[in-house]
Amino acid sequence: MFIIYFFYGLFFGGLGLAAYLQYRRGGDLPLSKQLPWLAAFGFTYGAAGWIDMFLTSGVTLDFATLLNIIRIVLQPTSGLLLLIFGWGILTQLTPLPSWTIFIPGVLIVPIAFVITYALTTFITPSPIEIPIDIWSRYLFYLPGSIMAGIGFLRQWRIQGRLGYHDVSSLMLGASLAFLFEAFVVGLIVPAAPYGPASYYNYNRVTYNAFAGEQANLYRLFGLTAWLDYERVLEATGLPIQFWRLVSAIAVTFFVVRGLDVFEATRKRRLIALQTERDRARESALETQIVARQTAESWTAALVSISRRIAELDDVDDILLYIVESARKLLKSNFMGIGILNEEHACLELKWYSNDTSTKIIDSPLMVKNPMVQKAIHSGQSYRSQENEPSEMLEAVCFFEENLANKMAVVPLNLDNASIGAMWIARNGEEPYSETDQIWLECMADQVVIAIKHGLMTSQLQSLSVIEERSRIAREMHDGLAQVLGYLNLQVQTLEALQKQGKEETLLEELKNMRQSIQLAHADVRENILSLRTTLAHEKGLVPAIVEYLDEFSIQTDIKMQFINRAGDELNLSSIAEVQLVCILQEALTNIRKHAKASQVNVSISEENRMESDYIKVSILDDGVGFTLSESKRSFGLQTMHERAHSVNGSLVVKSSPGKGTHVWCKLPCLHQEKLRKKSILLP
Prior knowledge:
By secondary structure, this protein is of the alpha+beta class. It folds into 3 domains: 2-94 and 102-277, no CATH class; 306-451, 2-Layer Sandwich (Beta-Lactamase); 537-683, Heat Shock Protein 90 (2-Layer Sandwich). It is built from 16 helices and 12 strands. Strands 1, 2, 3, 4, 5, 6 and 7 form a 7-stranded antiparallel beta sheet that branches. Strand 11 (650-655) and strand 12 (661-668) form a beta hairpin. The termini are far apart. The relative contact order is 0.05.
């Protein structure tokens, strides 16, 4: 018996240690919450087994009495811990069926009866150890082991359904081990006058302890019981302690292995979660890549539109590019831009793009869609929702065979007033998202900017025409008109001289008149040359300058030398190019009229700085020069300064009598890559 009790305590102590170590590892499995009760049960029940070992080893009577007292405490305590563990295994791992809610009510009466009956046994004249041992087994060990067995049995079925056959096999083994434990530990007790261990011929005997062995401790009755220690020995030839050892080995083996498998299951779940997380990350990464590509596509489209607007492309071309790009980016079948007519009474479709074409509509085409009309009147964007009424999607797609079932519309607001609307439509199942609406609003802003820029360009052209007309009128007044007035007076003078017979004086006046006529003719030819150069939009800037200098040299007999160090294409805005030509013309006009120069050197170079780049134009003549403070050219010089400053440039004039004149002009380059520029029609 010593060896049996030793291994009995060893196995249950090992069970408690394994449960405790597994609990220390942590985990989110439901079984982890029940491990403290299992560990406490294993430690207390193993300690009770080792107390039985010491009692069988022949200890002194005093020490045996102390051990008996400790065992009296450990016996019901371990049974209660097993009961709590069994209840947790049965109810906490997986939810019980709904009908089990009636079990406590059904069992309350028999349980109360059994407990009352158990309490009465403590009044019977017998040692207290006997009823404590028996009823702790009946009331704690038996139901606790049964509930644990049933709980593991349910886990066997659940794990089998999940496909974890290794786990389910161990759960079945643990279930059978606990049920066997319920039989050999909870149901088989020493012979007693109650319960399954009751007898027929009860004879009270004197209590004697035989070598501290617990079985002989209960020999107080005449044994005619049908389920007690003696019956097991008679039936199997082996004492009940042996079968309890077998039960301890089975429970420890299957539960400890089950704990390991639960850890493996936890790792398996972690791997599955890791895989799912990686899959989610890949999906999120793919979504980010798609979103980035979409954003890049939209950014490229917006940059291209802004560049076209900055280059003063035709407004119709810009708007056609917008509707085509937006339709493709928003995966739509149709996109249109409508503008209110002059009376603001109806909306007319002007630009559209569908799957087959992108065009401008010359003849009026009325748009009567209610969502478009609502957007114009309210000034707010709209998107069609699910189950949108069919009448809300009518008259929205033009030159399309299929009817639209999804659409979005954005009003076009210019200076806080609606001028039209922009809308998209498709005949697919996927509705337009809020992000699509935001992108559409961005495109609508570009449409408004393009229209406004076109209006501003027209205004600038009108102002430029007015300014150029004023310049021509001023030059005609200063030149041709004065010459004609002078000639009128001279003709009268010639008549008087002819009547007076003063032929020499007459010839001298004719000579002066001829010089004035030549000067007026030169002014007219220069004005014509200036207009031709300013209006030359089919040529590049540099070729236009070269042609102008060549013709100027022919007309004035002034030798011209041109040096270009900046390349054939100057990185200037269109307005800056026009101002550069006008400054050059004004400087050469001053040279022709006042400098009496024989040679002029014109050079163009590019000046690089850390902050920005400049185009530098130098005009140097070998004329008579002048004093800046006393110059009669102040009006022309002031005009040149104003032209340079209007495009954020600068102009410097250096001159002194007898040393010629040097004019420097610096104009800022565009803050972007060098692109081919178109000359602008600016009279």
